[in-house]
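Deliverable D4.2, example record:
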Amino acid sequence: MEKLALFGGNPVLNHAAMPEELFRWPIFTEEDEAAVLEVFRANKMSGNDITKEFEKEFAAWQQRKYAVACCNGTMSIYAAMFAVGLKAEDELICPTKTYWASCLSAQNLGVSVVFANVDPDTLCLDPDDLERCLSPRTKAIMAIHYKGYPCDMDRIMAFAKAHGLKVIEDVSHAQGGHYKGKMTGTFGDVAAMSLMSGKSFACGELGIAVTDDRRCYERLLAFLHYERNTEDEIHEPDLLPYLHLPLSGFKGRANQICTAVGRVQLKYYDERIKEIRRANNFFFNLIEGLPGLRCHRVDEADGSDMAGWYIPCVVYHAEELGGLDPEVFIKALTAETGFPFHLLGGNFPLHTHPVFQTYDALGLGKPSRIAFADRDVREADKELKRSENIVVIETPYFRRLLPAEITRYADAFKKVVAHANELLTLEHAPTNTGEAGQWHAAVR
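Output generated by the structure prediction step:
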């Protein structure tokens, strides 16, 4: 095989010259534009009428009774915690390798986050670690379908039922996905998600939560929406004394430009993500079995899938490539393609950030994570080393099935793997895999 581009050989491809439609997302058409202009011209950006229609349509699509839209996904997850009744002195189990919005707002409710390990192959919460995290104060589990991979919901729901726990699904990476034939977002007491511009379901800056429980629905409304925290929609006796003001202290209203776009996107979303799945499965079929790389995808034989395949990636095993530093591997891939490979490690494990160790947001003289706790949950973080040592490399996110072009990206991976021994000769400061990652995902 021809020598590596990093050593003067010809690159496999030029990413900049690839067809624009291979990566273009989201797909906005004149129908989206017309929906936006209708809201703009009617000066309805801050209304609720379009949002309510979107909620009805989204709930029906999501196969749940109720949906509540709000300003962003972070706010929807925060509201979901309130909706299931989390309060001061409670504990929430959450996988450590995830985006910060999955659990950081728990501190505003006085809730302690107990971090669980993730499975090194699925990158989702490891059900085998739930028992270790359990205490008498545990009240809920945050189940995150990370990078589109559906959690093991059978085991998570069984554990929750056995211990009387609530389950919140974070579906921000997996809108429209399936676990064993059932839609992600239909298992937990509440499911919440981001619909911001970088997601597979993209309609601007928007969040939404869904549930079948009327009490949870009313608590979502009361928490997020001062205009909708009224006698018309709220009937729970414990909420009635507190009408007309948002119980979060924040205005969570959705911008109706975004919900108008969401209504259009919903019409075509399922078909569009089928194309995304076809394209990315085609790519992973080509690189499946390469040493050093584990394709991060679910076995679809049981009816599961990767939704819109948010941030496709491989789990990197340096030991199979002679200990090749992942940053060197990425450097060689970039030279072969011109593609900006990054997200080394995915998200950092959250327990390693000082905000979960020492930050005193409430001014109580102790870290907010344990401000109302009867134990120092940070002591359990020492059991999370195996989640710190997972290295993930992002792969191209194909939005169209263009076999010839996708094959060239796969050829680049094959070429770099074939020349791994040569790359070992490069001088490079070894990566501390416990530091591999970043705190947020880039929006492209």
